[in-house]
From TrEMBL:
GO MF entry, a single one: hydrolase activity, acting on glycosyl bonds
InterPro entries: MUG/TDG, Uracil-DNA_glycosylase-like, Uracil-DNA_glycosylase-like_sf
Keyword field contains DNA repair: yes
EC number, as in UniProt: 3.2.2.-
SMART domains: UDG, UreE_C
The entry's keywords: DNA damage, DNA repair, Glycosidase, Hydrolase
Uracil-DNA glycosylase-like domain mapped to chain residues: 20-178
EC category name: hydrolase
Protein name per the record: Mismatch-specific DNA-glycosylase
Recorded superkingdom: Bacteria
Gene3D superfamilies from the UniProt entry: Uracil-DNA glycosylase-like domain (3.40.470.10)
Length: 193
């Protein structure tokens, strides 16, 4: 059941961090990279947890997850294990929680790009999928980048930029997100080619 928070309760999670969701053995096929945790995500300690976020519905629609997930309630242990068994990992460019991604500085995003490179070197996934073209462009200095497979790999992993699943991204639907996420998942071997 979806938990409800007051605005004041959520504000109490500003600047909190959410740990990466990575398997203990470090074997990740597809690493999704958010921009930074939102306040709801920090409150539930579940990535992409805001009730308006379409990340988990898109993963389900794409066939990456076998069933629906209500992240706003917080993922339970079984759901986390399902993600990890499927070879999925989740991290963020910037660790600190904010109400909106536009509260981040360009410097924070660039530092996050360097942190992501180090993470990928330590536990190399097959595919890294950064969710958000604007944040990707800033973090990696690629001003002309477009959504999709990038021409350069990231520390040996295929690099993809996929649309941001935030409800604030009105250009995308669950269906268009599912299509983009499925492409990255097929490249990672999470879905059949």
């Amino acid at each position: 059941m979806t938990r409800r928070f007051t605005r004041a309760e959520l504000e109490g999670f500003r600047d909190a961090e959410v740990p990466d969701l990575l398997p203990p053995d470090g074997r990740v096929r597809l690493l999704f990279v958010g921009i930074n945790p939102g306040l709801w995500t920090a409150a539930t300690q579940t990535h992409f947890a805001h009730p308006g976020n379409r990340f988990y519905p898109a993963l389900h629609r794409a066939g990456i997850l076998p069933g629906p997930v209500d992240p706003a309630a917080g993922l339970d242990d079984a759901q986390r294990k399902t993600l990890l068994r499927r070879g999925l990992g989740i991290t963020n460019l910037v660790r600190r929680a904010t109400a909106r991604a536009d509260e981040l500085t360009a410097s924070e995003l660039r530092e996050g790009g360097a942190r992501l490179r180090a993470l990928v070197r330590r536990a190399p996934p097959v595919v890294v999928a950064v969710a958000g073209i604007t944040a990707y462009r800033t973090a990696f200095g690629e001003r002309r980048a477009v959504v999709g497979r990038q021409p350069e790999d990231l520390e040996g992993a295929q690099l993809w930029v996929v649309p941001n699943p935030s409800g604030l991204n009105a250009h995308e639907t669950v269906d268009t997100l599912a299509t983009a996420y499925a492409r990255a998942a097929r490249a990672a071997g999470v879905l059949p080619a």
